[in-house]
Each structure stands twice: as structure tokens, then as C-alpha cells.
Amino acid sequence: MSDRPDSPADFEARLRAIGDRQYHDKHPFHELLHSGGCTPDQVRAWVINRYYYQTRIPMKDAAFMSRVSDPDLRREWRSRIEDHDGRAPGEGGIARWLKLAAGVGLDPDYVRSEVGILPATRFAVDAYVRFVRDEPLLPAVASSLTELFAPAIHKNRIAGLLEHYDFANTDTLSYFQNRLTEAPKDVAFGLQWVMDNARTRADQDAAVRALIFKTEVLWAQLDALWSAYVEPGRIPPGGWQPGQGLA
């Protein structure tokens, strides 16, 4: 393999090919969810466990910003924290996710407590936070580029949930609707930053590995849900049990 860096077009194609190959929209759990095949408890399990991921996104972004000396990069990046935390109580992506939780019959306070998170979910999500906190800035930014592939899954999810589930409406699905406008802004900046800063073949390879790692974090969360609540349906100790935390 040549040590010469890929052209910008070829490098971007390498990054986008990761989504075509292994983004979590291809996981059987999402296929089940979007087609209306999930039971109410399987949907609740997904909402509870995904909440843990949602809460850690602004935490990993804050950890990233603590290492950034460039005020322009910090200024651009901090909007991601505001998107999830909001600027006031009741605003932002986390609050919108709790609306979804209430819509599927869960007590938002129970979901907020983080009781019932699957061990594998905690392990995968915490690994992502550590990665962004500890790795060089280039792979840390590159790991966020799964947002390249997110608009398609949000559109499919909105359409599938509205078609198949009674809980779905503009209020309960507001998280996904907002991400249709938030994610493209984030990814446009992140992709350009990676393209500008991955100057060597080693840089490009590090960015590719980081994006692969992030897709594996997302995939591992769905593997945990599938194993615990679909088949074989073996809920590990500490995992949410159907009937717990209902409103």
C-alpha cells in the first residue's frame, strides 16, 4: 500500500464507504423497529438504553473541548452541547428524548435515573467518551462523522414509527425531527475539519479507524438490545425488566 495520502475525493469516499458497509441502520434491531415489529417493551428497552448514549454526547463534547486550544474550534463545537442540553431547562435533545420516553409509557424520572441500562450499553458508550477524551484531536473529531449517515436513518425512523406505532406523533418524535437540521450543520464542519487536518496517509488511516470504531460503538448497543430483549431474550443482571419504570 502506498504511503501517499489519498486525494480529497478518494479520502472522503473511504469515509462514506464505512457508512454504506456498517452503519447501524443495517442492524436487524432497527429493521424490526422501523417496520413496526417491535413489542412495546422492546421499544421501551431501546428508549431507556439509548437515553444513556444521548446523555453522554454532551459529556464527550465537553471533554473534547477541554483539550482544544483553538477558540475558533471551541466556538464551533460548543453548539453541539447546546443542541443536546438546551440553553434552559426543558430544551434540547435530551429533554426531547424524555418526551419520547413518556410517549412510550415510561416515567421520565425513571429513565433519567439511568437504572436498568444494559451493562454492554454502558461499556460501549463509556468507551466512546474515553476515546474522544483521550485520543488525538483528529480521530476524536473523525469519530463524530457517523452524522454523515444519520439523516437517512432519522427520516426512515420518523416514517416507520409514524406508520406503525400509536405513540408516534410530532411531539414524541421531535428529537429525530430536530436532528434533521442539526446534524447536517455539525457534519459539514466536522468533515471539512477532518479533510483539512488529515494531511498524511497515517492521518487519513487514523480518521478511518476512528469512524469504524464509532460505528462499532453504535452496533454494539443494538447487539445488546437484541440479545436481551429479542433473541434469545436473556436480560443480564441489572438490565431493565419489563414492567419497571412505567408512568
TrEMBL record:
Keywords: Oxidoreductase, PQQ biosynthesis. Pathway: Cofactor biosynthesis; pyrroloquinoline quinone biosynthesis. Signal peptide: none annotated. Its EC number is 1.3.3.11. SUPFAM superfamilies: Heme oxygenase-like. It catalyses: 6-(2-amino-2-carboxyethyl)-7,8-dioxo-1,2,3,4,7,8-hexahydroquinoline-2,4-dicarboxylate + 3 O2 = pyrroloquinoline quinone + 2 H2O2 + 2 H2O + H(+). Belongs to the PqqC family. Residues 13-223 form the Thiaminase-2/PQQC domain. Ring cyclization and eight-electron oxidation of 3a-(2-amino-2-carboxyethyl)-4,5-dioxo-4,5,6,7,8,9-hexahydroquinoline-7,9-dicarboxylic-acid to PQQ. InterPro entries: Haem_Oase-like_multi-hlx, PqqC, PqqC-like, Thiaminase-2/PQQC. GO terms for molecular function: pyrroloquinoline-quinone synthase activity. This is Pyrroloquinoline-quinone synthase.
